[in-house]
Request: fold
Amino acid sequence: MKKLLCSANLLVILVLVLAGIFISGADSPRERRQTPSYGRNQVYDSNNLPATIAIEAYLAQIPDEALIEIGLPLIPTKESETITVDKLLNCLNSTKVKGKIISYGRWVTVDNVQCVIEQKNFVYFPIKVATCPNDTSIAKMDYQKYDIGTSGSVTPFFTENNKISVGVNFNYYDLLGNNKDNSNNEIPHDNSKYHLDETCLLNNDVPAIVGAMKQGDSVLYLVVRAKVLDE
Reply:
């Protein structure tokens, strides 16, 4: 009888020990946190979902006068003469002839997933194509279509050095101001276009100038920032 009791006690103790090991080894869902990997398997949150990334793009138009005022040449020849984000902000806020943000786009996506936006419209302007031979006051008119707005896509992924590589396709369309008041409608309006298709390497939540284009008496700069939202 004593042998049976001892065997039963040992069995109970063994069950309790095994149960304790199982309970202590189990994590609650709130406590689970996978160590971040890189590339397609980047994970930050407790549910093992890919990290959510917000990407913003600003297209700034900076007049030549503003660049000259802060001491930058229109054609830089060395690294110290190139524009930085701080100098760009100076041109937007502090110079006598200030620059302006002419386009803005924001995407929210996850690691290695492309996201597309389309914020475009169009307008029609009349264009004089011919006049009546007998009466020049009578003109034959045609209409030309112009795209206006912003479109583009981004594809982010994490690199092994803890940076965010972003493939950016950015397109901006507008009418140039010098022809917006073309009252005689004899020449087509000039269409302003900016296009960038590039891959840039960014630090988390740190804006960077990723593209520039000379246009008339100003320069267009594209600034991109990527931020992990659920790190």
